[in-house]
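Morning!

This is the sequence you dropped in the shared folder:
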Amino acid sequence: MPRDVRMRGFAERADVEEVEAFLRQNTKPLPSEIVPLLESVGRVLAEDVVAEVDVPGFPRSAMDGYAIRGEESFGASDYDPISFELVGTALPGNPHIGSVEVGQAVRIMTGAPLPDGADAVIMAEVCQEDSKASRVQVSEAVAPRKNVGAIGEDIRQGERVLLAGRRLRPQDVGLLSSIGHAEVNCVRRPRVALVITGDELLPAGARPSGAKIVDSNSVVMRGLIDRDGAAALPFQILPDVTDRIAEAMSNDEADVILVSGGSSVGQEDHAPRLLGQLGSLDFHGISMRPSSPTGVGRVGETFVFLLPGNPVSCLAAYEFFAGPTIRRLGGRSGAWPHRVAAFPLARKIASAIGRTDYVRVALEEGHAVPLATSGASILSSTVRAIGAVIVPREQEGVAEGEPVEVLLYDEDRSE
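The structure's back. Tokens below.
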């Protein structure tokens, strides 16, 4: 049942953990789709991949040299080389036709198929070729199977090479190519609709003018959406007109809708009421700083996040709630996607029991320096910051000198 915002307002705020648990319980990966191999880097596998072929599919030379019967080289030395009749050349993709018989050798290059009859490759550096006589002198013994890549040495037919849920790296896609996959079954990328509202907003890239401000939230969120493996749908800035906002919040093409602005309880804050009418407003008002006016709900199967218009609040609400949901829909981990580093705190952070704080910190002389804990409209603070410290609700601040874990803005954690 939707919560009645008109009765509750912000007199009661949900804990961050309560909202996070709700989202975890109600989020599962989207259905799969077939993705062309060359477009699959960064995508998440929807099923295990089992090799249908051996790699390599033939015994191949591991170096440049001569293919021979290994036992025939036993006893060879610099003082007493053994001579072989040179009967041909094997190149990658162009094997020697015919078999290597007793006393014969085939010139062979790295990666070329080993000729029938041969079982070893002697490296070129210990051989002396006489091209006029079509012979090669071998001055070192080589054991059978030496310098030969066996069938299936890299990958065996029937081997489970990649597991469902894996986020594909470039080398993973290279492996898929090596076993003949032209397409990959991946979790569908979440589609995210941005609903940017505000009569005061100018489009990104415009110059501020008079009482107008330039929209920055859509720029930040598009970057975060891309980081989290989703696709942002086309959008436009909407005026504070309820019909227009309601129509945008009813986008049935989207898996997630992010509403920026109009999320609080002011005169022009239409989004919470509209969400309650269109679907369910599951949470509105969260015990956190910044981002306390954040709302979370659903329209049908689509998640809707009401993000505050102030840039830092918008960023924090996205990172806590929308980002993990988008990643889980796409088959990724919902954990914070940042590298974590520990630094001693340069000065104390004041917080309050029962509230989660998202504190931006800079780095000075090896210490984490808290920036303004208020000022949710000061986007430049996130540029000066190296990252953020999360102060959990059960903790009454952090004392000067204590080590803190900083979620670094600049480096994502690989999965």
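Headline: Residues 311-329 form the longest helix (19 residues).

More detail when I'm at my desk.
O.
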